[in-house]
Amino acid sequence: MPYFRDRAEKRQLLTLGKRETNFTITNNLNFKIMTKVVNILMVFLIMLLVSCKNDSKIDIVESTASDPFLEELSIEIYDSTATNLIDTNATFEILAKGFYWSEGPLWIDELQAVIFSDVPANKIYKWTEKDSLSIYLESAGHTGPDNSGSGEGPNGLILDQNNKLLICQHGDRQIARMDADLKNPQAQFTSIANTYNGNKFNSPNDLVMDRKGNIYFTDPPYGRPENKTGEIGINGVFKVNPEKEVSVLVDSLNRPNGIALSLDEQSLYINQSDSGNPVLYSYDIKEDGSLENGKILFDFLALSKNAKGLPDGLKVHKSGNIFTTGPGGVHIISPDGKHLAAIKTTKSTANCAFDSDQNYLYMTTTDLLIRVKLKL
């Protein structure tokens, strides 16, 4: 989730309602002075609102039919098997826009909603067909004294086996479980893992859980000062077992990022968001939970020369194919590394998620939440 690479501070247009104010004019000079004071105060208020990113208005898109950005979205098929997954004329929808860096989408059946992080804003949003966009949880990734918008908020999101929300928290540098019920979210957390060998993690980025309850997660240096490793000294891939014991699985990757399991949970897929070596790795999972036979499943270097973005979040489709973000959008890669298709967003795309029926793919694309129709 290297949102700082291409993030520019976005200024939201805030509209101030005009109010009619009745003045009793007893003196023309007093009226002019009062008018000037009011104008100065109004200008100050506008500047204050615009400069405050945490109170910026998010543009909720009710209709996407006329949005010019839709014309930039497209599907490219490279292998005929991809036509079983998506059509070249598949329908795109822009659901909401105006975020700082949208990440970590997660479909929650219980809410009939997709939730997702806005990392710099330190918030998790919720989108539903019925109610459109709303703030789901504030102070979601950094709960310290200055927790409103540290730039190090929440990132990857999953549900555990008890239907509790697990969050990669950049600011608090841990994997945490939200204690509250999904329908009544509260910024109250229990730490699942926050150190390895007594040293704090860098900035946990993305995570996945297997059927045994083991959590696999990546810990790159994003959000760290000058983008360097912290006290832990490595950019690692870790596993947390149900007893909360932490083990390091990989310590050789420069920028480990998105992570996913194959359908049979015999392979672990890891994206590396390194501009000099942007690749998707595949590792075999041994019986004891360690990894072996690491190999490059797909190399994004050639694609990165002409498109924005790097490999980031990824999800595995029920077909076994991998929907992974990468240069230019989301790429569909087969389990043996064949490039089947590309969902081209033309923007840096951070992550993606399916709904429960895999009828739609939701994509967090820089400042946007987008979805595209898939084949069932």
Automatic annotation (TrEMBL):
List, separated by semicolons, the cofactors it needs.
Zn(2+)
SUPFAM superfamilies from the UniProt entry: Calcium-dependent phosphotriesterase (SSF63829)
Provide the transmembrane region boundaries: 33-50
- Positions of substrate binding: 103, 205
Pfam families for this protein: SGL
Q: Which residues bind a divalent metal cation?
A: 257, 312
The UniProt note on the cofactor reads as follows: Binds 1 divalent metal cation per subunit.
Catalytic residues of the enzyme: 312
Keywords for this protein: Hydrolase, Membrane, Metal-binding, Transmembrane, Transmembrane helix, Zinc
Ranges where the SMP-30/Gluconolactonase/LRE-like region domain occurs: 101-366
Record's Gene3D superfamilies?
Answer: TolB, C-terminal domain
Q: A GO molecular-function term, please?
A: hydrolase activity
Q: Which PANTHER family match?
A: LACTONASE DRP35, LIPOPROTEIN-RELATED
Q: Which protein is depicted? A: SMP-30/gluconolactonase/LRE family protein
Which organism's genome codes for this protein?
Paucihalobacter ruber
